[in-house]
Amino acid sequence: MENASVAIGIVLLLVFIGPILYLIFRQSAKEKLHVSSLKKISTDHQMQLDDMEINNLFLLGIDNNAKKLIIVEPQKNMEFNVIDLNNINESYISKKTIPVPGATKNKTAVTHISLELIKNNPKQRVSEITFYDEDDNASLSAESQLFLANKWNDLIQRNLSA
What we know:
It is a single chain. By secondary structure, the chain is an alpha+beta fold. A four-stranded antiparallel β-sheet has the order 1-2-3-4, covered by helices on one side. The N and C termini lie far apart (about 75 Å). The longest helix is centred in the first third of the chain and has 43 residues, at about 1-45. About 40% of the residues lie in helices and about 35% in strands.
């Protein structure tokens, strides 16, 4: 009876742990594929990436020496854009909010967070990197994405002013 109980315990453990291990393995393989894609694109454009970000919505990479930014969108068939930061005059975080119904006056909920890259002559938006969109199921929490947007805004600002 004791061997049967141990065998049942092991089988149940595998039944519950197996799918979790499979998802972890699959996510790791997907992330490695995205990193290799980002590195291949950077190599094709003679860039050496100093910082990278792998996200559900995008892949970002920045070369501080060449002052270039790569934005890859995996959901759009790995469509990418290489932006020369020498042509960008300004970057800022755009945050859209709505009032929370039934809450205090100043309570708002974040619906959209993006990083805007602006060129001045003529003033136009070169690119928008969406970090959070309330309607998108792939996004994480607004607070974590705002932190990430601030990090990338700081990285880009350092390349604009230098």
